[in-house]
Predict the 3D structure of the following.
Amino acid sequence: MNGILNCTIDELEKIFLNNGFSKYRAKQIFVWLYRFGSRTFDEMTNISKNMRDELTKMFYIYRPKVANVAHSRDGTIKFLFQLADLNTIETVFMPETKRNTICISTQVGCTVGCKFCNTGYNGFVRNLTTEEIISQFLAVKDYLHLWDTATERLSNIVYMGMGEPLFNYENVLKSMQNLMCDENEGISRRRITLSTSGIAPVIERLAKDLPCRLAISLHAPNDNIRSKIMPINNVYNIESILNACRTYSYYHKYLKITFEYLLLKDINDTDDCAHELIALLKNINAKVNLIQFNPWKGCSFTPSKKAQRFSAILQKAGLEAPIRARRGIDIMAACGQLQSHGREERI
Ligand code: SF4
């Protein structure tokens, strides 16, 4: 049996045509899956009983098990989802005044191994499938009863959870196609942000395949510092990443690229670093998101106290440079704090 959430609408149309069903049924089913959150085919009342029975034999509708839910004082909610093979991933829901954002994972663990990140510290297990990525969005809506409430829509998606999305490109691409589908009302490419450690050749592919908002985990103004905190820089250095960003901007001038910059005391938070960063991002349609380091057990970095000063230097040079609000730090849901629990630590 296939997981229907693994199928794009084009793929489903082909399967239907090959099985004697009308192609237009695929769109109807997408409405049930993505707009109403159906978890069985029997709920799909505008589909004939005969077809519903056939669909039940051909497909299942995937949801992960909700293994744990942690509530932060600031309203952030962290979900621990258990997958069919008992691996676990974390997903974070962040309510705000005008929008609700979900931060989803794309891998169990991560191969990139950024020194400041708990996910990377815990190693890599495997890529998530398309349905495992999409179902984080659906399962959070299930849990919080967000299917009917027009005012409390889950309006923004950030691919910033566990894993490097561009190392799981095919599944991430398909998940974005489905989440951006017309039937999943309101989730446009401007409401989806993909964050990457800078896999330069794949950034260029993304520019052509399916543009969305792009965030680059830069975290340093030069290769010397960046290679020390992000070993991936030895493969894709800053110049190669910025060239890929220029290509991205060439195709999508209206999408400003966000450069994430985690401030680490005495590593990358000096005035000189700020000035170097300004020079680096000159001529790029860029914005800088300054992030405060969120400590976790086993990590020796210290949060910087210079965020305001750093931000002021960038802003004086005309760069938008907000300091990102810390969310969910008391439940280990903030940036860089997510982790999977190894299979030996099953729930
Ligand atoms: S910051 Fe992102 S890319 Fe780096 S180790 Fe963590 S999850 Fe992987």
